[in-house]
UniProtKB/TrEMBL annotation:
Reaction catalysis annotation: NAD(+) + ATP = ADP + NADP(+) + H(+)
First-tier enzyme category under EC: transferase
Family to which the UniProt record says this protein belongs: Belongs to the NAD kinase family.
Co-factor requirement: a divalent metal cation
Chain's role: Involved in the regulation of the intracellular balance of NAD and NADP, and is a key enzyme in the biosynthesis of NADP. Catalyzes specifically the phosphorylation on 2'-hydroxyl of the adenosine moiety of NAD to yield NADP.
Gene3D superfamilies per the UniProt record, alphabetical: Probable inorganic polyphosphate/atp-NAD kinase, domain 1, Probable inorganic polyphosphate/atp-NAD kinase, domain 2
Subcellular location: Cytoplasm
Superkingdom in the source lineage: Bacteria
This protein's UniProt keywords: ATP-binding, Cytoplasm, Kinase, NAD, NADP, Nucleotide-binding, Transferase
InterPro entries: ATP-NAD_kinase_N (IPR017438), ATP-NAD_kinase_PpnK-typ_C (IPR017437), NAD/diacylglycerol_kinase_sf (IPR016064), NADK (IPR002504)
EC number: 2.7.1.23
Positions annotated to bind NAD(+): D69, G70, N138, D139, R166, D168, A203, Q238
Protein name: NAD kinase
Length: 309
């Protein structure tokens, strides 16, 4: 029996070979088992077992997401029926969910074996989209087709109708997703420690024009009105339906739907603070300084020392 079984969720297009090679070498030294989705069989050595995507979570004690935030969200969705801890390995552009840099991966894997980490629960949106059941850890968006009218939809909460939207897009987000598409559309910044559902219209033409924050116990339903333009439905940035002119999206918040591995919770909180600071909540100079790498801080301290007398 292997010490630990790790499932690999790889970015669909980025070069992942150096990171995978590091994992394979570590697994050989520590009697660990690596598994990957069958669709990624050609991207990993033969020593990595390939299984159908639907079997990856059951075959793993933990998932390793190799990519950015989008890959991490995909791993969380993959494990939503049987939540397993997910550790994000960062590739490429800036990410806020992923934590581990490739050069730090062996030490991070050692800590998985010893249990030296913290698990952070993540909530999601359970959505019925025109009859299909899906989940979103960031957001669900109804987006108009350019040049073909607007998103026109009614709002109902727990069966009670409240009004309608006519806008370019409607974004339904979790607190974690409130700093993404929802914020860009003018929505509020919501603490990730909060349980809530945020509905934000983008470029509203008429009807409800402000973002609304709902309780996690409430069920939110958005139904396309007759005459609405064709609408695409995105789930965590992935289009799942395109060109719909009828139907409804029903959303309910589900707590503790995913588990994220945090090796340095304080550092993650600092990165989250930086993200908020880049948006609407400016940081104090001393806080910004704390976010700098230790070597950079040391050099600044040396420059600011008073000259010897």
């Amino acid at each position: 029996m292997p010490q630990i079984r790790l499932g690999l969720v790889l970015h669909p297009t980025r070069e992942v070979s150096p990171v995978v090679d590091t994992m394979v070498a570590w697994a050989a030294r520590h009697d660990a088992a690596l598994t990957v989705r069958a669709e990624d069989r050609h991207r990993v050595p033969e020593s990595v077992r390939a299984v159908p995507e639907t079997d990856l979570t059951a075959a793993s004690d933990m998932l390793l997401s190799v990519g950015g935030d989008g890959t991490m969200l995909g791993a969380l969705r993959l494990a939503v029926a049987d939540p397993k801890p997910v550790l994000g390995v960062h590739l490429g552009k800036l990410g806020f969910l992923v934590e581990v840099e490739p050069q730090d991966l062996p030490a991070a894997l050692d800590r998985l074996l010893t249990g030296d980490y913290t698990l952070v629960e993540q909530g999601c949106l359970e959505c019925a989209v025109c009859g299909d059941d899906v989940v979103a850890f960031n957001d669900v968006a109804l987006i108009r087709t350019p040049g073909q009218g607007f998103v026109t939809a009614t709002l109902a909460v727990d069966g009670q109708r409240y009004g309608y939207y006519r806008c370019d897009a409607l974004v339904i987000s979790t607190p974690t997703g409130s700093t993404a598409y929802s914020y860009a559309a003018g929505g509020p910044l919501v603490s990730p420690a909060t349980r809530a559902v945020v509905v934000t219209p983008s470029a509203p033409m008429s009807g409800i024009s402000r973002a609304v924050v709902f309780s996690p116990e409430e069920t939110v339903r958005l139904e396309l009105k007759s005459g609405s333009g064709p609408v695409a439905v995105e789930v965590d940035g992935q289009i799942i339906r395109d060109g719909s002119t009828s139907g409804a999206v029903e959303v309910r918040y589900r707590p503790e739907a995913g588990q994220v591995v945090r090796l340095d919770p304080r550092r993650y909180q600092q990165r989250s603070a930086l993200k908020l600071g880049l948006l609407d909540l400016p940081l104090l100079p001393a806080q910004l300084r704390e976010l700098l790498p230790e070597e950079v801080r040391r050099r600044l301290d040396e420059r600011e020392l008073p000259p010897p007398r």
